[in-house]
Specification:
By secondary structure, chain A is mainly α. Chain A is built from 13 helices and two strands, in the order ααααββααααααααα. Classes of the chains: A mainly alpha, B mainly alpha. The interface between A and B is large, with 47 and 42 residues.
């Protein structure tokens, strides 16, 4: 087991470097010159700009710039006063040692700190979505498999395809309009509510000083975003679960269980369901991964202060250090999510042998 | 009476036998027969055909039949509701005719989806066949590259790149095509891997076929049915991706209409003119829904073993 985990982590290393190369390359091609962005102040003279350009190394070849960003330049001599000669040690530690530079927009603050402040919100949302999505999907899938070919099964198929084809932000807006406008107005004459929205329309908690209260005190803020973003996972998992359940139910040990005279509930739940869940672990990695990427949209429409929203804001304001940091962190989270899902899969099925993987 | 019933049953059985086991039918003919019996898929195809027809005839329909155009603005006719005089689907925040913009937008949205799906499928086939056929170092490198690309959250990458290149329909097609090929490649690579050991490939090689010929006239035609399924799902996914990018402001820029940017533009005016939100959203959902249903139906038709 340990060897398996270590091997998976080692395999992730080339992937990580590939990601940093791609991201750095894209950012180099991006419009807007970092020197111009950092010296927006008109009182800065042209020669000072040139000094800064040399200090930042924006004129170096790609691989030098990339290495300085990746592992820092405190081990090499750089030209700090732009006289054409190298004269002092660099002062940059590189992202591998946790130095992601400093944000352009929030003067000088560490991008890593900005992200770690936002990470909790994204993780909190995604855990809730994974839970709701998996549990909801499993329930629908099992019932559809048991009722195979009947009305529930057919409508669950339509629901699954529909759940995949709705644009997330449109569905979110419909939910907001329903809960905030249509239902309160329709129910007010009957004495239900006072015409104000039933649920908060966005945000993570009421705007108070000193951060958000603990999660149980602001569950109503999570209802809409979680329901909207778990539509896709519920749809997908109900299909996987149904297929897996049907496959399991045709195996020999199920027939044995039936022959022994077990009740059909015992067969379906104790023998079928428990074995049918195992292969689904494979889909857990892609699910977590998809949520990290998709959270930009949900976080934007519900103003949920996570890393998706941070990425969006920093792309719009061209805050490149923060953009690169959030992409790198998002990718690392994705890699770890995949590995965690694979390990869970291996743990849940003793038939998976680690040497072979 | 009883004889009648069994005669009917025998006739039915013979009918089925003819459908399923006539040896002269090839894979596509069999699939076509199965599709013809699959009503949801046929319905989805019909709806999609109507949408495509509307998009293709957009200029004729809007200028000649409804006598409106997509650019004329009017201060007096802002936010007209559905079924107004002269504007069947109302007008938008600048008083432009909504129906006409939807027709032209459908052209671009569907066009982007189809073109990008074809491009990414093309790249995916070539790369996947090469990786699966040659194996070795090339395969490892391609695998590493795909793994890397797949581990950057897709929307993050899209946002970065569209921020770099100014998004118009053409650049969007290129971006989607260049980023979207990994799924196809993985599929094609696995299939190539298993097909290249079969007897007919060995036979072809014995007759002196070149690697190139084996790859593109023996392997690719054999996975063509898989590719058709992938294509219809890819188009759906791309239409959704276009609308998501538009919502974030990185899609095709107005005034060029696409369903995506009309929908996200309408969000601001949802209170004043809800039809600006409902109609484009409904169109996107219906189109993607049909494409996914067709993908499902095609899969069942080509491979009845895995059908439900």
């Amino acid at each position: 087991m340990q060897r398996y985990i270590i091997r998976r982590l080692l395999q992730a290393i080339p992937t990580f470097f590939g990601i940093t190369i791609i991201v750095y390359f894209i950012m180099l091609l991006a419009p807007g010159d970092p020197v111009a962005l950092m010296t927006f102040d008109p009182s800065i003279r042209q020669d000072e700009r040139e000094v800064l350009a040399i200090k930042l190394g924006v004129n170096d070849p790609f691989h030098i710039q990339y290495l300085r960003w990746l592992i820092g330049d405190d081990w090499m001599m750089v030209d700090s006063n732009a006289d054409g000669e190298v004269d002092s040690w660099g002062d940059n530690y590189g992202i591998l040692r946790g130095d992601f530079g400093s944000s352009f927009k929030f003067r000088g603050s560490n991008p890593l700190k900005l992200i770690s402040e936002r990470l909790g919100a994204t993780i909190e949302l995604n855990i809730a979505v994974v839970l709701i999505g998996v549990i909801g999907g499993l329930l629908i899938g099992v019932v559809a498999a048991v009722q195979r070919g009947r009305a529930f099964d057919k409508s669950s198929r339509i629901f699954a395809v529909l759940g995949d084809s709705v644009p997330a932000f449109w569905f979110a807006l419909l939910a907001i309009m329903l809960m905030g406008l249509v239902l309160p107005r329709a129910l007010e004459p009957y004495g239900i509510g006072d015409g104000s929205p039933f649920l908060p329309m966005g945000g993570r908690c009421p705007p108070v000083r000193g951060g958000c209260p603990p999660i149980y005190a602001r569950l109503q803020y999570m209802i809409l975003p979680v329901l909207v973003s778990s539509l896709g996972p519920i749809a997908g998992w109900s299909r996987f679960m149904r297929a897996s359940m049907l496959e399991t139910i045709n195996s020999d040990y199920i027939r044995t269980a039936q022959a022994k005279g077990l009740t059909s509930r015992g067969v379906w739940i104790r023998h079928g369901l428990r074995n049918a869940i195992i292969p689904l672990m494979v889909f857990l990695g892609p699910l977590i991964f998809g949520l990290i990427g998709g959270s930009v949209i949900i976080e934007r429409i519900f103003s949920w202060p996570g890393i998706g929203l941070l990425l969006f804001d920093s792309v719009v304001s061209r805050d490149y250090p923060v953009v690169m940091t959030s992409v790198v962190i998002g990718s690392v989270l994705a890699i770890l999510g995949y590995i965690a899902a694979d390990i869970l899969y291996a743990l849940s099925d003793p038939r998976v042998r680690f040497q072979g993987l | 009476m009883r004889n009648d019933r069994s005669a009917v049953r025998i006739a039915k059985f013979k009918q089925r036998e003819q459908d399923e086991f006539v040896p002269s039918l090839n894979l596509y003919q069999k699939a076509f027969r199965r599709i013809c019996r699959d009503r949801p898929t046929l319905l989805a195809m019909a709806v999609l055909a109507v949408f495509v027809l509307l998009a293709v005839c957009a200029p004729f329909l809007s200028e000649t039949v409804f006598q409106v155009d997509q650019v004329t603005q009017s201060v007096r006719n802002k936010y007209l509701p559905l079924f107004s005089q002269g504007h069947v689907l109302g007008t938008d925040e600048l008083g432009r005719d909504h129906l006409s913009r939807l027709l032209y937008g459908g052209r671009i949205s569907l066009g982007i989806g189809v073109a990008a799906a074809v491009l990414s499928l093309g790249i995916g086939i070539v790369v996947g066949v090469f990786a699966g056929f040659y194996g070795g170092l090339a395969d490892d490198l391609i695998n590493w590259f795909m793994l890397t690309l797949n581990n950057i959250p897709g929307l993050f990458l899209l946002i970065l790149i569209t921020e770099m290149l100014s998004p118009n329909p053409l650049t969007l097609v290129l971006i989607f095509g260049v980023l979207g090929w990994t799924g196809t490649t993985r599929l094609v690579r696995a299939e190539t891997y298993s097909i290249k050991e079969r007897e007919y490939i060995i036979a072809a090689r014995a007759m002196g076929a070149s690697n190139w010929r084996i790859m593109f006239s023996h392997i690719v035609p054999n996975i063509f049915s898989l590719l058709i399924i992938t294509l219809s799902q890819a188009i759906g996914g791309l239409i959704l991706a276009e609308s998501a990018l538009s919502f974030l402001g990185f899609g095709v820029q107005p005034p060029t209409p696409t369903w995506g940017n009309m929908l996200s533009g309408g969000l601001e005016y949802a209170r004043k003119a809800p039809h600006l939100v409902y109609v484009p959203g409904l169109l996107i959902t219906t189109t993607v829904f049909c494409l996914y249903l067709i993908g499902d139906g095609l899969r069942d038709a080509f491979d009845p073993k895995i059908a439900d």
